[in-house]
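re: ur question from earlier - yeah i can do the single chain one, its not a big deal. heres the input i used so u can compare w yours
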Amino acid sequence: MSATANVSAGLVLLRRVASVQERTEVLLAHPGGPFWAKRHEGAWTIPKGLLEPGETPLDAALREAAEELGVPAPPPPHVELGEVRMKSGKRVLAWAAALDLDPSIVRSNEISIEWPPRSGKQLRIPEIDRAQWCSIEEARVLANPALVPLLERALAADVQRALFAP
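and the output i got, formated as tokens:
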């Protein structure tokens, strides 16, 4: 079965941090492989991937998060954030979820890519080579600009109440 080529689904993962002032952080993931190795600002993403035939977008988002982070997908609630369109035209549907994850334990699945391009040579790379928690200010700089509206929606007051209600 082939994946749906123009639609991806993902999770915006959030955690609360108690410091001088309590704040919410978002988890960003850096794509693996040689193409992304030296790219930093504007390159980071959320755990996301293509929908498989017959798969609901939320199921795809949960599966992709588990595959790319190497940990079980977060339990409900999962708050729908809507969609954005990437520069490539691909649609990304996303949900917010709470997960307090130590980024040092992230172990992504691997994929095969042709590298160098048009060489016929296959290279195994992790989909995600690292992850880190960021403030929204940091995330606006690091994340792919098309994903920033999803990050901002995830930090809205009503989403915060749904995810972190006592």
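The chain has a mean pLDDT of 93. not sure if urs matches, ping me
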